[in-house]
C-alpha cells in the first residue's frame, strides 16, 4: 500500500515538474511582410537601381511610340479634312500597326521587367541574408514560427507579432 502511494506521489510529482517544461514549448508565431522587406531593403541596391533604370527606359520608349501614334492620328484628321481618302486609308493602316506594336512592346517590356524583378528577389545571396535576419530576430524575440503576411489564409494578427521592421533594421545593421 505504501509502495502504491509512493508511486502515486512520484507520478504526481513528475507530472507537476513536467508541466512547466511543456508550457515552455509553446509555439510563438511571428508575422513577416516579405514584400515590405524587399522594397525597403532592396531600394538602395545597385540591382534595384538597374531595374528602375530599365523600367524608365521602357516607359520612355513606349511614350515615344505613343507620340508617333498621336502624330499619325493628327495626319489622318488632316488628310480627311483635305478629302484625301487614299491617304486616310494608308494612315488607318499605319495607326492600326502602330497600336498593335505599342501593345506588343508593352507586353514584352512588362514581361522582361517582371522577370528581372523575380530574379532579383530570388537571388540566393539576398534570400540568405533575409533568412539569417529572420532567424536572428525570431530567436532573439522568442518566436518559433514565422509566417508570411501575404498568406491568404491569415485572417488577422496583432501588430506586436509583426517582426517586419525589426528584420529590416537587422538587414541594415548587417550591411554597414
TrEMBL record:
InterPro entries: Chaperone_Skp (IPR005632), Skp_dom_sf (IPR024930). Pfam families: OmpH. Keywords: Coiled coil, Signal. One of its GO terms (molecular function) is unfolded protein binding. Residues 48-111 form a coiled coil. Residues 1-23 form the signal peptide. The keyword Lipoprotein does not apply. One of its GO terms (cellular component) is cytosol. The keyword Membrane does not apply. GO terms for biological process: protein stabilization. Belongs to the Skp family. This is Outer membrane protein.
Amino acid at each position: 500500500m505504501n509502495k502504491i502511494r509512493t508511486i502515486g506521489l512520484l507520478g504526481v510529482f513528475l507530472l507537476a515538474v513536467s508541466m512547466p517544461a511543456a508550457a515552455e514549448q509553446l509555439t510563438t508565431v511571428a508575422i513577416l511582410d516579405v514584400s515590405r522587406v524587399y522594397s525597403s531593403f532592396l531600394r538602395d541596391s545597385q540591382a534595384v537601381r538597374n531595374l528602375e533604370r530599365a523600367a524608365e527606359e521602357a516607359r520612355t520608349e513606349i511614350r515615344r511610340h505613343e507620340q508617333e501614334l498621336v502624330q499619325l492620328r493628327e495626319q489622318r484628321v488632316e488628310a480627311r479634312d483635305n478629302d484625301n481618302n487614299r491617304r486616310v486609308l494608308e494612315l488607318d493602316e499605319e495607326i492600326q500597326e502602330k497600336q498593335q506594336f505599342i501593345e506588343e512592346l508593352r507586353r514584352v517590356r512588362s514581361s522582361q521587367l517582371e522577370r528581372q524583378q523575380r530574379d532579383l528577389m530570388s537571388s540566393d545571396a539576398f534570400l540568405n541574408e533575409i533568412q539569417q535576419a529572420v532567424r536572428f530576430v525570431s530567436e532573439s524575440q522568442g518566436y518559433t514560427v514565422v509566417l508570411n503576411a501575404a498568406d491568404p489564409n491569415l485572417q488577422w494578427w496583432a501588430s506586436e507579432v509583426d517582426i517586419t521592421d525589426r528584420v529590416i533594421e537587422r538587414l541594415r545593421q548587417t550591411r554597414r
